[in-house]
Design goal:
about 375 residues; alpha/beta; TIM Barrel; three-stranded antiparallel sheet; 11 strands
Length: about 375
């Protein structure tokens, strides 16, 4: 199975063999994880987050892993191999902040010749799409940065496809861990709706569509490919790797969790004071007393106080552990490369099993 290469729009666009992207999870991953995912045959993302020197170091970690592993980039967007075969994810509302810190990180990423930029959760994404396109147009050495746009609805997808001219659309369903629109439909429904609007027919203007949300196994991936998705984005599964920067207590919480352990809530942003997200956006994570109290209507200041006290005592109720609904089938810690290779083999097996459901009819011509 290791010699099998998936033939989808995203694998051809990125020059990869497995249609799996690791999500750009802030405070949970960096160059180590992204580099290992790309090296193993998928495509890794680094979050565009934090201080500039730390961000630069993460980019160089990713580059070092790929160079050390003998990775040979095969890009459809650059005439040479002087590119960094990972992507960087940016939050639109952070890019819009007047201090310019996030937008400077975008410039740093583009100067590093990353393969892709992922944009999400902003009310002015067209500005940043134009910024990337203009930067590329002025390069001394030609390079086109692929632009991934995250969408939570068909209307979002229309904007991404028709207005923003996205190179890749990431359809994030309600099952996804971390932040997303609380009213988003399940990922299967969202992917189906987008591809119904933009069918995969000759002359279609729709870019590759990736499915994101609750995807943890090869069977999940095979299901999305069968629906018509070009690939998938995996988050939670990659949190349980040595390369993830999640704390041991957070990884333990994930290992103890099951399919009904997560909840969509504003509680974790309220207690942290991170409420600048666009309207309708909340987060999915492991349910704790903090989220239960907040969602039950307990006084907000009391919830905040209890959360701070729990955090000081290293109690699980003082943890924020973002997680998707697929966490229930993630029961071990393994390297990012092994996760990618296992997902590849599981997907191949699932597709072959599905093919066995069909037998020739005696009445067939």
């Amino acid at each position: 199975m290791a010699n099998i290469i998936f033939n989808t729009e995203i694998t051809k666009l990125l020059g990869i063999k497995t249609p799996v992207m690791s999500a750009p999870m802030a405070m949970a991953c960096g160059g180590d994880l992204a580099g290992q995912v790309t090296l193993a045959g998928g495509f890794g993302f680094i979050p565009g987050f934090g201080e500039e020197d730390v961000f630069r170091a993460e980019l160089e970690k990713g580059r070092g892993i790929l160079q050390g592993g003998g990775y040979k980039a095969t890009s459809t967007t650059s005439p040479d191999n002087n590119i960094l075969s990972v992507g960087v994810g940016f939050l639109g509302w952070k890019l819009d902040e007047p201090d310019g810190k996030a937008s400077q990180l975008l410039t740093v990423a583009l100067e590093a010749r990353v393969s892709a930029v992922w944009l999400s959760f902003g009310n002015n994404l067209e500005k940043w799409v134009a910024f990337v396109r203009e930067f590329d147009s002025k390069r001394a050495e030609p390079h086109t940065t692929l632009i991934f746009i995250l969408v939570n609805s068909l209307q979002d997808a229309r904007v991404a496809v028709e207005d923003l001219k996205a190179d890749v659309v990431v359809a994030q369903g309600n099952e996804a861990g971390g932040h997303g629109h609380g009213a988003a439909p399940p990922v299967a429904a969202l992917v189906t709706e987008i591809l119904h609007q933009y069918p995969r027919t000759a002359g279609t203007k729709c870019p590759p569509v990736l499915a994101a949300g609750g995807i943890s196994t090869g069977a999940h991936i095979a299901a999305q490919l069968t629906l018509g998705a070009s690939g998938v984005v995996v988050g939670t599964r990659f949190l349980l790797t040595p390369e993830s920067t999640y704390k041991p207590a957070q990884k333990a919480a994930l290992l103890d969790a099951h399919a009904t352990s997560t909840v969509r809530t504003l509680a974790f942003d309220v207690v942290r004071g991170t409420l600048a997200w666009p309207a309708g956006v909340d987060g999915r994570g492991i349910s704790t007393q903090t989220s239960r109290d907040y969602d039950a209507g307990v006084d907000v200041e009391k919830v905040k106080t209890q959360f701070r006290e729990a955090a000081k005592e290293s109690s699980k109720d003082g943890l924020i552990t973002w997680s998707g609904t697929g966490v229930g089938v993630v029961d071990k810690i393994q390297s990012a490369g092994d996760v990618l290779r296992e997902l590849h083999e599981e997907t191949v097996k699932a597709i072959r099993t599905a093919n066995d459901l069909l037998i020739p009819s005696s009445t067939d011509a």
